[in-house]
Amino acid sequence: MPRPLFPFTAIVGQERMKLALLLNAVYPALGGVLVRGRKGTAKSTAVRALAALLPEITVVRGCPYNCDPNDPEPCDPCAARRAHGELPDIARRRIPMVELPVGATEDRVIGSLDVERAIRAGERHFEPGLLAQANRGILYIDEVNLLHDHLVDVILDAAAMGRNYVEREGISVTHPARFILVGTMNPEEGELRPQLLDRFALAVDVDGLHDPAERAEAVRRRIAFESDPHGFVAAWAAAERAEQERIARARALLPHVRVPEAMLSLIAHVCAVFEVDGLRADLAMYKAARAIAAFAGRDAVTEDDVRTAAELALPHRRRRQPFEQPGLDPEQLDRALAEHRHPGPPEDDEPPPSGKPARRSAAPAPMP
Question: Please, what is the end-to-end C-alpha distance for the chain in angstroms?
Fold first, then answer.
């Protein structure tokens, strides 16, 4: 019997990291999460525990891409069988959890085409890679900052498009590649380029536990797990089931969560205040706010949801001065929210003299 994983709900502290992971579980198309922190901050433990927490999926038995039997855009082999009227053999399995080794080659990641066989025998033979294995699951890259930039680009492209494209010598293959992308890194070992940081929808910085009571509880739980892994997991089974059910309810609610126009305007305002480049930040905040609302059981996004989304989607995108600490200035975020809530007078309004009403700007002339 395989050794059980440490339960997700038993992790002490690190609430921001756990929330970012759960939001991606609720909304797999959110765009992934980057977790930055020193060793020993439960980064890998949380990612592996999340995979065990998520519900099983229905797949076509034997499909190397874990195709959904009802997917309108399946892989080529499943599409061919469907075209011939074959009914798929259906199976249930845990979601795939694929860990990418730092030394992985491009062919190992995206898959390889046998060009010689194609030329010699006219057969297109494709050996699926790690992106194929990760479809409909989690792709976990530990020490993502040590991976070659080109490979990170390839993985981020596949994550954004939901498909992997492989082309060699004029021969091409494509297959589904929809996965939750989770990268972890220790900033002391080097940073990611800003262009790559921007591709992760969310990012969190984690630190060790500083509260003595939390540290003691973390040690207590770890010792209990190491002494009796199966007994410890059984003791946390009810909490794990409750979290699974909450994720399932949030997934069902997500399509019905609306973003009021005022909240969309607030998202744009906050992104403008923090001077983030492009629209990826706005989109990430929009999606994250919807996932936050769904996870809370609400069908409309609130200002608090936008605030939390900003804390997850903006810190790694804002421009920082050398040696400036990561994260958002909470006071600046408070001011941005207040400015949107209570906008000041237009810039061309003159301050009123003492005891006199303010002079309003002239109304525009009527159109002819």
Answer: 82
